[in-house]
Design brief:
Layout (H helix, E strand, L loop, with lengths): L5 E6 L3 H14 L2 E3 L10 E5 L4 H13 L5 E6 L4 H10 L3 E4 L4 H16 L11 E7 L6 H15 L5 E5 L7 H4 L20 H7 L1 E2 L5 E3 L13 H14 L2 E7 L4 H9 L2 E6 L3 H16 L8 E8 L7 H8 L3 E6 L2 H10 L3 H4 L4 H14 L2 H11 L3
Parallel strand pairs: 1-2, 1-3, 3-4, 4-5, 6-10, 6-11, 7-9, 7-10, 11-12, 12-13
Antiparallel strand pairs: 8-9
Helix pairs in contact: 1-4, 2-3, 5-14, 8-9, 14-15
Length: 384
């Protein structure tokens, strides 16, 4: 059985960096470092950016477009977000900030081999579940549910991975709910979505201290390209391959992009509350989604938020009004919930023993357990 040897060309400004990279490459095995003057097309170019990074990026893009190199890894002592975004645009597969880390290089070389062998890690690729949280109207707590469900999902599913995507296309609030200041948001990648792969997506995501990864929306009007159905298809395909669960704060938008997200979702959590206008909207949305064929009825889960036992509208009346059974009921705990929002913390971090926190954990379990267990848990929560 033949073993492939891949050629690497190093274009570096530092002799010390060159020496270290050669040691790592040789230790990885299966690579040949081309000597200076060798005119063969390299399978991989590792290029160090200098002071005129913009000009050098243009050169890299030209080499890739002309198919004069296979893949490109970039390295730089500048770790500014703008440099990384430009690297994505020109088509670089990896970007290493300096000082370089040997393990990071080894992993990148391993991934390169897998891509060249044509496997693209298919055997190890996740097939994650996409769960969209959609509000029947504004102010029903869509972001609260999405954020706390994502955190709870990670806590009850040990060893699993969760990413939280903010699809509120104007003034998304997830960073406020988690007291984060993400360097990147989806508005910065929409112009060159075809360049985005799992390597760069990993670098773009922001990690919350709970372990949840976050891709925020733009925080202000700044001319970013709005996500299209095609862009969201590509982004969700990548996320599904990287994470066990993709939780989407879908807001209340019903434009073409939002509807495409619903089509790609395994589960739609439709948030409602016990008010006649909200229940009427919920009923209209269910009928619209079903009539237009965006999602199957059994994939729509109605979650009642802010439930008070002494409400004028009973649970039975609510179900009759929307012609669908409630999947879950979240109790009204205004004080705890507002405290969490104002502190920028998810419920498990400020009130781990509160009834509403436990309710979110049970909801996370209900969405991931086998059907029989879901039914048992569900009826426990729905006991009248």
């Amino acid at each position: 059985m033949s073993v492939s040897i891949y050629s690497i060309k190093l274009v570096l400004k530092s002799h010390k960096l060159s020496k270290k990279l050669v040691e790592i490459i040789r230790a990885a095995g299966g690579f040949e470092v081309l000597k200076e003057g060798d005119t063969r097309k390299p399978d991989l170019l590792i290029f160090e950016l200098g002071k005129d990074a913009e000009k050098e990026m243009g050169l890299i893009g030209s080499l890739l477009d002309a198919d004069e190199v296979g893949e490109v890894f970039l390295t730089s002592d500048v770790a500014e977000p703008a440099v990384l975004m430009q690297a994505i645009r020109v088509g670089a597969k990896e970007f290493f900030t300096q000082p370089i880390k040997a393990e990071e290089i080894r992993q990148a070389l391993h991934k390169f081999k897998e891509r060249r062998k044509g496997s693209a890690l298919k055997g190890e690729c996740k097939i994650g579940e996409v769960i969209s949280v959609f509000g029947s109207k504004g102010g029903v707590g869509t972001t609260t549910v999405a954020v706390n469900l994502a955190v709870s999902m990670l806590q009850v599913q040990s060893g699993r991975s969760v990413v939280l995507l903010d699809m509120n296309t104007l003034f998304g609030e997830i960073p406020l709910f988690l007291e984060m200041s993400p360097q990147f948001h989806w508005g910065e990648i929409t112009k060159n979505i075809q360049r985005l792969d799992n390597t760069f997506l990993t670098k773009i995501l922001s990690r919350h201290d709970t372990g949840v990864q976050v891709l925020a929306s733009p925080s202000y009007l700044n001319g970013h390209v709005r996500p299209t159905p095609k862009i969201m298809s590509h982004l969700l395909e990548l996320m599904r391959g990287m994470f066990d669960y993709v939780i989407i704060d879908a807001g209340q938008s019903t434009d073409d992009t939002s509807l495409r997200v619903l089509e790609l979702s395994d589960t739609l959590i439709l948030i409602t509350i016990l008010s006649l206008p909200c229940l009427a909207n919920t009923n209209k949305l269910i009928k619209s989604f079903l009539d237009l064929g965006y999602i199957a009825k059994d994939r729509i889960k109605i979650v009642l938020n802010r439930y008070l036992k002494n409400s004028e509208i009973s649970l039975k009346d609510a179900e009759a009004g929307i012609s669908k059974e409630l999947f879950w009921i979240i109790p009204n705990d205004f004080t705890t919930t507002m405290s969490a929002i104002n502190k920028g913390k998810p419920l498990p971090q400020i009130a781990s023993k509160a009834a509403i926190t436990k309710n979110f954990a049970e909801l996370a379990n209900a969405l991931t357990m086998p059907e029989a267990k879901q039914e048992k848990k569900k009826w426990k929560m729905f006991k009248r």
